[in-house]
Design a protein that fits this description.
The protein contains three helices and no strands. The chain is an all-alpha fold and 89 residues long. It has a single domain (3-87), classed as Helix Hairpins. The chain is flat, with a radius of gyration of 16 Å. The N and C termini lie far apart (54 Å).
Length: 89
């Protein structure tokens, strides 16, 4: 593992921390949905970096499946927020 890998993993960890912070603090539901999407994108990046470090294509397959599921999760939460917004008129 090179120094560049350590720096990149540290920055990814910082991204996860900030995304989780926004998820917890909010203040609105839309902010939380964006935080979940950001968290998922950073996690996908971490999985891809793990594929590079361990030189295993299995991690890339896992990243693809996770990306598909994360996209569906974001769509479901966005639909929920859209329906929740119409209920508050």
């Amino acid at each position: 593992m090179s120094i560049v890998d350590i720096i990149v993993f540290s920055l990814m960890g910082l991204g996860v921390l900030f995304a989780l912070l926004r998820l917890v603090l909010g203040p609105k539901l839309v902010d939380r949905v964006v935080a979940i999407d950001t968290f998922n994108i950073v996690v996908i990046g971490v999985i891809v970096l793990l594929a590079k470090v361990f030189e295993s294509n299995l991690y890339l397959d896992i990243a693809i499946i996770y990306a598909i599921l994360a996209f569906l999760e974001t769509v479901v939460f966005a639909r929920y927020v859209e329906g929740h917004k119409h209920d508050n008129r």
